[in-house]
Design goal:
Largest sheet: 6 strands, mixed
Number of helices: 3
CATH class: Alpha Beta
Mean pLDDT: 89
Distance between the termini: 33 Å
CATH superfamily: NagB/RpiA/CoA transferase-like
Strand content: 15-25%
Number of domains: 1
Radius of gyration: 16 Å
CATH architecture: 3-Layer(aba) Sandwich
Strand order of the largest sheet: 3-2-1-6-9-11
CATH topology: Rossmann fold
Helix content: 10-25%
Order of helices and strands: HHEEEEEEEEHEEE
Amino acid sequence: MPEQQPLSPAQRQQRQQLRRQLRQRRRQLTAGQRRRASLRTGPALARALQHRPAHHIALYLANEGELDLMPAMSHPRLHHSSTYLPWLDPLRPGHLRFRLWQTRHPMRPNQYGIAEPALLKRGRALWALDVILLPAVAFDRAGYRMGMGGGYYDRTLADLARRPRRPRLLAVGYDFQCVEEGALPLAPWDQPVDQIVTAGSE
């Protein structure tokens, strides 16, 4: 893991520019391109997981052009898994917790307008999850990802360093979001993932 130094003003600007460019490209995908990419995600996740446990999976609901994971959950490797969604932890600002979720459960928007479970269904400790599927704006082959800039996932995942058990971390997105190693300026808080899973947009 490279030693992470504070970002310079030029690096911060580079990250912001890259985030704007890739978010715009993601929003410009057609409905057909999104659907085809989503259908390819299930087999790609199954290959990435191989024979590892996947009984308890944390995922995200697609927002602002993110790769939609819902079709992937019907894959034979995944459709028996219990699924969990992130919600903003009211007791630890800036952190996430994960609640059990099913499609029939009611949802409500959080402070950012992103849907999260409305019912106080049981959650699962971060370390007790088998897999966490993380959204990303950009990522590199070294396993570093760049999110939307709020730092929620990075702060939450930093807690895993103190645990003897940890879930498998997979960043998910479109092929074009994967940049060359070294092209993504690393911030001191960036948490690497175990693997990148991509789906083409064509």
